[in-house]
Amino acid sequence: MQVAIPLFPRFTALDAVGPYDVLQRVPSIDVVFVGHQRGELRTENGMLGVTCDATFDEVGAPDVVVFPGGIGTRVLLEDESIRGWLQAVHPQTKFTTSVCTGALLLAAAGLLDGLTATTHWRAGELLNELGAHYVTERVVEHLPQRIITAAGVSSGIDMALRLVELLFDREAAQATQLLIEYDPQPPFDSGALVKADASTRARAAEFLQSRK
Q1: Which candidate among 71, 143, 171, 188 keeps its CA 20 to 30 Å from the CA of 45?
Q2: What is the pLDDT of residue 158?
């Protein structure tokens, strides 16, 4: 089973690597990083490089697509090659999914028209403008349409575990969760916008502004 994870300049590392680390634990899954061309692509802060092993033209029938997000998604919204690739492969996928602002690319390709979907909380309005209906849920499923979207960054791990369950069974997902020892016990409870106080939101905005 082939899982394709698109890469692009200024992607968010955990959006791609989180689902990758979950899915590659299953022996029958082969994960390929795909993009416009082969070679290294750097994350949004430039500190980490990940190698793209295949071009979009070389991956024409993936079983699953996991489209990550990141600052770099904005410049891809008018990218005809990505839009065309998503439109071409989606009819044959078992699931087409996104993490964080990767949902914007699914929406730009028309795959989320009229559907509820989630993304990073800062991109909700833009997702609505692209034809989806943003909701503040961690993972949103539309199984008849074979579409799943995950919210910001860390939620991609949750979505990937759910994918393992859908593709195989609950025990496979639980075994995968055990292998990565995914047992979240965060020291703070500010991981959702509704839980964060004003000073936390202000500091987050300051961090984001410094990365542009």
Answers
A1: 188
A2: 98
